Amino acid sequence: MRMSNILGRGRSASSAILVAAFLVSACSSTAAPSVSPSSDPTAAPTATVAPTPTVAPTPSLAPSPSPLPSVAIKDPTTDLAIGAPYELTALDSAMETALRQQMGGSLGAFGSIIDLGMRQVTQNGTIVGFVMVIAFPAGLLSDTAYASAVGGLESSLGVTLTAATISGVEVSSGSDDKAGYAVYKHADELVLVITPTAKPDAVTEALITANK
Asked: Which strands make up the sheet holding 115-123, listed edge to edge?
């Protein structure tokens, strides 16, 4: 079972990357400065003598744009634990490669300040979900920024996420006809759980209790 099957929206593993990019953007409190137009009025043109026509120079070919640099991804799921009956396993190599290749284009400049990792959740050898962890610099993922990220995630996925307390942690979860979603804040990390069933709470609770 692949990530695209669980998301069920006809998209590849880039779906998760776009969600990550959206969350990072929502958590950023720095807005790009706007450029104000000049207030100076444009001077009225004056008549000039028509120049002697010259032969237009041969246009030079524009250089090919450089490919987007790859982003070095540190994996915050390396030390992530989960309780029984679940286990965490690495993504298959093709998905891992796609994840790393698309980070540069999807996260842009944010890729240099955050770390992202994903793991498959298995039960008795069967994949029952995925967990994504986005680690932010200390202090960036404030409660306000986290709430904004949850709202953005609702809009991106088209689901309503309802807050509830699981093992002492506030978790916002919801589902559609394809998957279940749960998101919570752990220190400076945002954790997103995606399961092929409408109820991600069991996997989420196993993660929370194992990482306290």
From this structure: 86-89, 115-123, 126-135, 189-195, 180-186, 169-175, 162-166
